[in-house]
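Work Package 3 committed the consortium to producing structural models of liganded targets before the mid-term review. Because experimental data for this complex are still outstanding, the team generated a predictive model from sequence and the ligand definition alone, so that downstream docking and mutagenesis planning could proceed in parallel. The input record is reproduced below exactly as it was submitted to the modelling pipeline, together with the SMILES string for pyridoxal-5'-phosphate.
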Amino acid sequence: MAVMNESATLALNARAKRLAAESKTIYNLTAGELADDTPPYIQAAVAKTLEKNKYTPVAGLPELRQAIADHVNDYYGSRIGTNSSILDENGPIAAANVVVTAGAKPALYAALLSLVNPGDEVIVPVPAWVSYLDLIKLAGGKPVAVPLTAEYDLDVAAIKAAITPKTKAIIINSPHNPTGAVFSKQAVAKLAAVLKGSDIYVIADDIYTQLVFEDDFTPVPKAGFERLVIINGFSKSQALTGWRIGYLIADKSVAGAATALLSHITGNAPLPSQYAGLEAMKRHDQPPQATLDALLKRRELVSKGLKATGIKFHLPAGAFYFFLDLRDYTTNSADWCEQLLIETGVVLVPGEAFSTPGFARLSFVTDEKTLNRALVEIKRFAVKQPGRCSQAL
Ligand SMILES: Cc1ncc(COP(=O)(O)O)c(C=O)c1O
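The resulting structure, written out as tokens with the ligand in place, is given here.
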């Protein structure tokens, strides 16, 4: 298909694994998933359901949809938007608003296909997670990239300027992949004010909301958007990337259209994975504390190590990525990352994958020994780069 590119992050991760299998010393910092195994509580709960094997309703097990609705009402509270199109008569979010999907990716795609008509525009702040632009194009829409501010916050004035009569939706992902930033409450509130009274949907990709390291975080849906779709799942919070389980929350027309679409392509999400989601919801989708503690420690370690390299970065407030500013070294970060891999075995995802050349994403999910060694290699490589030696040493 001419419009579509393979996910650059998945392709690089696969390449790094291939090189490691050939006994090359590889420090793979591309992973978009936790290194943890499936949490024991999920293994135990799902083991009890293995005799079950039948189709479920396309939108998911009724008890899971209800558990997600309960969780979401509790998590976002009444401020989800008294005028939100999701709510009937200002009631709480109901099971009927929830569609369970085989990962957050199909939730996003189904939402976009339900909302976007050919030629409609969808605004995406950049840098942006690899799949947004391709998913929008696949849905027949036109992605409109709007840069974040230098501090990685929403640039609401620029978003406002990018709105046209064709704008159908804006995708907001906070905590943000690839920068690890969380968008400020003020910027998100400003955006809600700009969109007030319009038909433009905010698609809040909340997949990293359970992985936040700072107190000052307000989930996007709390700003009170009138037209809202929430995307979420268990891939990041419960280390269930391979299980393929996510969900969308939307008004009944979008949820109905998404369900009709999914009925023809995936049918229901995998049954054992739905039971995994149900168990996660009993725990309010809290990640294991050991996971959060380990991530916090690794964030500190990488922050310290990167300072020693001289490479510029912002400390991530959530998710598990650092976004390295390589513009003092190169504008061609794909090339820079390729040389880094060849010379040192360290694999980063170049900013080109996120529509932002001159940067690279470093995932800090991996063990401390690997991170430490990789940081030594990055420093060794960076100090050899033209134009930076004296500052980096
Ligand atoms: C921002 C963002 N949204 C959605 C997804 C997709 O999640 P899933 O694996 O559940 O499809 C990812 C995965 O990397 C992501 O980073």
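Reviewers should note the following from the model. Residues 388-393 have pLDDT under 50 and may be disordered. These observations will guide the Year 2 experiments.
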